Amino acid sequence: MGRASMSSGRRAVFLDRDGVLNRALVRNGQPFPPASPSELEIMPDTAALGELKELGFLLLVVTNQPDVARGTQKQEIVDAIHNRLKAVLPLDDIFVCYHTDADHCDCRKPKPGLLLRAAEKHGIDLAASYLIGDRWRDIEAGERAGCKTVWIDYGYQEPGPCHGPAIRVQSLRAAADWIVEHTQEGQRGMPKSLSALKIKLFADGADKCAMVQHYANPQIQGFTTNPTHMRKAGLTDYEAFARDVLSIIRDRPISFEVFADDFREMARQAHKIACWGENVYVKIPVTNTRGEPSFDLIRQLSYSGVKLNITALLALDQVRDVACALAGGAPAYVSVFAGRIADTGRDPVPLMASAVELLRPHAGLELIWASPRELLNVFQADSIGCHIITATDDILKKLSLIGKDLHAYSLETVRMFYEDAAAAQFSL
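User: That's the sequence. What structure does it adopt?
Assistant: Structure tokens below.
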């Protein structure tokens, strides 16, 4: 079954059953399904499903019911529960896996078989569809099928999703609201204005003139730089450049990076850089060039009061370990290089959304969406609750294009091609 054959433009919201549509019975921190229709309690916020229907979404239930295979539940009881759900909710179809993991079927979540089957039956564009679930199996199945996933986190005593979700919420109402907002923004085709963004915009570079210009813009709330930027700018005296910039930029955070590979020398440089100003954050790479993690150094510096910016992270386990090393220490930034993640062909949005959740319990830690590739990344980062995004001059220059009329922009493009051809004096 090829995924491309399923893309016909129809959109769906896939819904897990227990914990999403009806209340799960929680025992010892674990959710269980109702044993009969008499135990079925419809969730109070299922009225939100009507709003999804109004947007044209098919509402499809995808549910694991392994108690049938275990012999502790009868299939006709499951069918009776589903008939009750279909009678009171605007559902279009229900897809059920009755197997256990031992059956090695292709339909039991976290495998995507139920979603693929539903997509084939109803002609669904999975990339334009969503899945709402309350357990890691749901989210994993949605991610594997290519959907955008929404995790209702009830705090069960079990592992959370390893991949995705696009967002974590606490109720079906909040999940539906996010899908409605996400869909309507796409339909409008218009981004938010810059002033409506909650994310903080940091300028990234080592050109002093550009930094001073950005400092005059109140929308630029901080600065980052690194040795690569400095080398490209032709700088030879690191400290002189830093102190020169800091003599002007005194009231907004600015990050300078160590350039040693030995952890002891990194520590020495970090303490020296930190003394240059109260607004200075010291950038420490997540490993050295031999791949040795810098977690012990990070912990030591953070607990000694050095404000840090941990840089060059690309994987969620790095985010988790860095957060643990920084927990309880000085305020710090965690820079995940979303642009480099995208360079590998991966969508950085689900990973960055998960990184937001990993940092949420830690006060004083802020996530940076680093190395963006296009202006769109600013709005993607804002939509998932990322705290900060860095942007180089080439991206910052595009801020004036936000919301630009596309017909006018098309005409400008045509004129540019014409004028460049004329200037080149081409002839045929």
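The chain has a mean pLDDT of 92.
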